[in-house]
Design goal:
It contains no helices and 8 strands. By secondary structure, it is mainly beta. It has one domain.
């Protein structure tokens, strides 16, 4: 049986202000876990972004708007079939969060990727 590895854990407080742009990000944080089980690796991550103030330049005059907080989760799975071949899949935004990083810019809903990794040589 594999051992549980904890990945990076972070907490950030951020703010940026100038005459034309104001972004006030209260808090954000993330955690990542990975669990190797022989030829299989399972992983998950969870991220939180706190409520913040942004500027909506589509309105005239530009106005300040509050963007809500949100949680993003992702899952991944990899299965090594030999030294050079690996099948993988990952799901981003696993909770199908409806969120905006910046006013007016769309973000992806739940998204699933899958593929084959081929390695050359050593």
């Amino acid at each position: 049986m594999g051992s549980l590895r904890r990945g990076p854990l972070s907490l950030t407080r951020f703010g940026l202000t100038n005459a034309a742009l104001t972004i006030n990000l209260a808090y954000s944080g993330s955690a990542t876990l990975a669990l190797p089980l022989g030829a299989v690796q399972i992983g998950a991550s969870l991220a939180y972004v706190g409520a913040r103030i942004d500027t909506d330049f589509d309105a005239f005059p530009a106005r300040r708007v509050r963007l809500g907080d949100y949680w993003l989760g992702s899952l991944n799975l990899a299965w090594r079939l030999g030294n050079r071949i690996e099948l993988y899949s990952r799901m981003e935004n696993a909770f199908a969060a409806d969120y905006q990083d910046v006013v007016g810019y769309a973000t992806a809903g739940r998204t699933v990727y899958a593929g084959i990794r081929l390695r050359r040589g050593d």
